[in-house]
Structure formats: structure tokens, C-alpha cells
Amino acid sequence: MTPPSAAPRPYDEAAAQAARERVAGLATPAGALGRLGDLAAWVAGCQGCCPPRPLDDVACVVFAGDHGVAAHGTSAYPSEITALMVATLRSGRAGVSALAGAHGVDVRVEDVSVGRPSEPLHLTDATTRERAGAALARGRAVAAEEGHRDLLVPGEVGIGNTTPAAALVGALLGLPAHEVTGAGTGLDTEGVVRKTAVVQTGLDRCREVTDPVDLLAALGGEDLAAMTGFLLGAAEVRVPVLLDGVVSLACALVADAIAPGTGRWWAAGHRSTEPAQQVALDELGLVPVLDAGMRLGEGSGAVAAVPLLRGAVALLRDTATLAEVLGGTGG
Ligand SMILES: Cc1cc2ncn([C@H]3O[C@H](COP(=O)(O)O)[C@@H](O)[C@H]3O)c2cc1C
Ligand SMILES: O=C(O)c1cccnc1
Q: Which domains does the chain have, with CATH numbers?
């Protein structure tokens, strides 16, 4: 297994540059493709070829786990929902299943810690460093198994999981709880105050913790560690990743702290309503494809953005160049 400090395999800047030049030469006004041109160039850089291959084989891997903080008033829903949503995902009836079915995306569910909740992160470490390390390795192994894909999406279910996500973002960026804590599944004002206090207590408890794997153990939990390993592993097998909501952005920050530069392999599928997701996007310099006000999780925002990414690749592959049009060979 690759050690946690391994550098990601190289992103091909020359292929990305060739793609940008190709975009500039298409039979479209300069800049007219907007961010779709940037996205196509990113795919070219990840694949190491211009024009990039179509993104035919796409999978969303949903990491599932329970969180002890949910019993402390940090979610609008009870932990029992997690196992029910895992069953719903497996029967293909979750929100992300519907989007994935519409867009030809496969969904895989990884039950990491459902029914085996993390410890409440404001009181004690969410899990041990040993368990966090094992979960990281499991996520990496999942990415290796999915290494034949053209694109991967990290999804999650787990009632309470926006609390560890906010805490990790706060810890890694040195931000206070009130700047990273959101309503999650729909807490009222009083609930957000309670959740913010939990996050701040966790941040205070872990002020001295700087190692990213220790942070995953202290504030994250096994499911978030597995997703982090998945993001690292996807870069190692050179598969680009479309990030989703707050949990995936928190794990992305951790992954980039473990292996700086891994962020080259990610684009942002959508902007969620969680403040921690937004500050993490800014930190990683990612501009989301969609901004649809979604706050479902499950990988749904990224899966909703897959058709746009496929369209970006099609534009680069199939649009005539201006030279062809001027030379009368534009079809
Ligand atoms: C029915 C239902 C389906 C979901 N699918 C995703 N989530 C999302 O909400 C949860 C995180 O929000 P919080 O931290 O506020 O609990 C996670 O399960 C996440 O995947 C759901 C939540 C519910 C209730
Ligand atoms: O940002 C998200 O992905 C999110 C927000 C609320 C609940 N679940 C997920």
C-alpha cells in the first residue's frame, strides 16, 4: 500500500494547456464556452490527452457511518435514518439513485460504521488513530477497485455527519465554529446555536492537534477517514473526482494536507448551503459547476453536475475549429 505521505501521480499540465489552446481555436467566439472550457481542460490534464476521452464510466461511492454527536442535538433527524437510507440506496431509491439513474452513473455503497457511531467529538476523540488509519486504507482500496472509471464522485450518508465536517474545516483553516457551522438537514436557529457550541468545544479540545490523520481520528470518524482515503486513492490511480457537499470538501482539505497537490485531481460539482463547504471551496481554489441551492449530500450535487462535465468534453472533442470553418471543412 502507498504510504499516506506519497505524492499523487502527475497531472499532465501540457495536455491541459493543449486543451486550452484547442478551446481557443474552436469555431466559437473567444471565451464563449466560459467555465466549460476550463472543465474540459482539467479533464484533459487528468487523462493526459487532448482532446479528452468521453466520461462514459462514472461511479458515485457513498460512504456511510453514524456519528455520536447526533445524540447531542446537532441534527434535525435521528440516527436511525442512516441505516434506513443505506437500505434505500441499496434498493436504488435514494435521491442520488434517481439522479444517477437519469445520468448513467453507477452507485456503490460502502457501509463503514453504520450502527457503530463515532464518539461525540466535543467530549472525546471520534475514533482512534488506528481505526482512522484502517479506514483510510479501506477508502484507498475502494478507489483502486474503481480505478477503471473515467470519473468518481464521493458520496455519503450519516445523520450528524455535517458536524464533524464543519469541525475538520474549522480545525484545518483555523476558523471559529460560527464561521463553519450550518443548519445541515434543517436545524432551526436554536439548533444551529447548539451545533455551533459542539463544534467549538471540539475545536478547543483539539487545538494542539495538527497532524491530518490525528485530526480525522479526533474530529472526523471512520467514514470520513474512508472518504479521505478514497480521494487520495483516486489521485493515485489517476481518476478525476467531482466533489460534492460539505463532507467531501472537508475530506478534500484533509487529503490535500496529507498529500499536498492532490487537489489537482478534483473539480467541484456544486455549491451547497453549508458554510464550511464554501470556505473549503475557496481554500482549494475550486469554483463549483452548479449552484442550485442543494443540500442533500449522498453525492447528489456532483452527480447532478455530471452532464455538464460530459458536455464540456463533447465540446472539446466534437466542435469544429475556426480554421476548419474558414477553410470550408467545418461540415
Ligand atoms: C431522509 C434523509 C436523507 C438524507 N440523505 C442525505 N442526507 C444528508 O443529511 C445528513 C447530514 O446532515 P446532518 O448533519 O444535519 O444530520 C447525512 O445523512 C447526509 O447524507 C440525508 C438526511 C436525511 C434526514
Ligand atoms: O453540504 C452537504 O452536502 C449537506 C448539507 C446538509 C445535509 N447533508 C449534506
A: 58-305 (3.40.50.10210)
